[in-house]
Amino acid sequence: MELEHLKAEIYSHKIRKTSDERIDNVKNDYQRVKRRYFNAFNEMLDVQKKPDNNLSEIRSANIISESVKYWEGKKITNIAFSIMPNHVHWVLETFEKDFEGKPDFCRIF
Hints:
By secondary structure, the chain is an alpha+beta fold. 50% of the residues lie in helices and 14% in strands. The protein has a two-stranded antiparallel ribbon. Strand 1 (76-83) and strand 2 form a beta hairpin. Helix 1 packs antiparallel against helix 2 (20-47). The radius of gyration is 18 Å and the shape is elongated. The two termini are 14 Å apart. The mean pLDDT is 81.
């Protein structure tokens, strides 16, 4: 995965005490790739305006709710979630941290 490769490169540069400019360049690459993944995901959600399965129906909503709660206390703290017809809004805090000590949600699942 490209994100994992860039994280490893940042860590490697920090250990070798590479110039701050080079580390900043790799961090910028990491953020660019991360934005690309988010944009692709958002576009995918927008494509399906009338979903075949309505996630907000009670049976589906119950399954999603239980799934969202699965990692609670193990890898995440759930803040809030909202089940929409074709996607879920989920606010959470992760226990895993990235190279800057910020929550790293890409690695926890």
